[in-house]
Design goal:
Blueprint lengths: L6 E8 L5 E6 L1 E8 L2 E6 L9 E7 L11 E5 L5 E8 L2 E2 L4 E7 L1
Antiparallel strand pairs: 1-2, 1-9, 3-4, 4-7, 5-9, 6-7, 7-8
């Protein structure tokens, strides 16, 4: 559903080794660009690149993320967005990565 105010895209994926999508909505694939560097590709393009992205990630489902972990987003396109996850002073892969986009 693409109703105003609802998530236009969401994904839960494993960012370690071979990236694997656990569940998603309006995500066709994840491109692994290197350590902690992912491109989330949309099934249906956004109307423009003026959307809001929220990201979360965790080491395990029982171990909350630490304040030293962060993320950055760039390359906001209508067909994809690029996300970089970091921890411990540099780019890092995480087994649990979550992303949602609102427009």
């Amino acid at each position: 559903d693409v109703t105003q105010g609802l998530a236009k895209c969401w994904v839960n994926f494993d960012g370690t080794g071979t990236v694997a999508i656990r569940a998603s909505g309006n995500v066709s694939s994840i491109t692994d660009n290197g350590t902690g560097d992912y491109t989330v590709n949309f099934t249906t393009a956004m109307s423009d690149a003026n959307y809001a992205v929220t990201v979360g990630f965790d080491v395990t489902d029982n171990n909350p993320t630490r304040s030293t972990h962060s993320f950055d987003m760039y390359n906001f396109l209508t067909t994809s967005v690029r996300v970089l996850t970091t921890g411990g002073g540099g780019a890092q892969d995480f087994p649990y990565v979550f992303l949602a986009i609102f427009r």
